[in-house]
Amino acid sequence: MEYIKQLNQSFKKGAVVDVRSGDTVKVHQKIREGSKERVQIFQGLVIRTDRKSSHTSRITVRRIASGVGVEKSFLLHSPLVLKIEVTKRSKVRRNYLSYMRKLTGKSARLQGLDFDRQAVNNIRDEAAEQAEAEAKAAAAAEAEAKATEEAAKQAELEAKQAAVEARHKEA
Description:
Blueprint (H helix, E strand, L loop, with lengths): L1 H9 L13 E10 L2 E15 L7 E8 L2 E8 L5 E10 L21 E2 L3 H5 L4 H45 L1
Antiparallel strand pairs: 1-2, 1-5, 2-3, 3-4, 5-6
């Protein structure tokens, strides 16, 4: 049992934003398309939060896109979720806001609460920042090695070209 708890803790992120039902959030999600990667931002209302203390904690975010309601569930500790930014906090009395699916327009508005946006969104994970800095340093070293290798190849090609031109002048 202790081993399972330890394993679950290893998959948790060091720091996660405190997200509640009724929050309007921007979720930055990493999307991979073929060999390319990009960050897609999904902004909407959090209508559900599940298992907050678990490594499988999840939020369901709803937004209206082109007149159609779209809901996405995000695992908070997933490596694909890069950042969650709380833009608005609303007063709600439930955890699961299923009634919001039926409401549109002005009736779908929630009463806003004052909150310290800076304090909520400024979550620092030193371990993740250090790993990111090491990855950037490794990538820079790899790029530098590639550039020196490319320069050596270019110098070799220029030397061959000069030798060929010298032979042509002699002939």
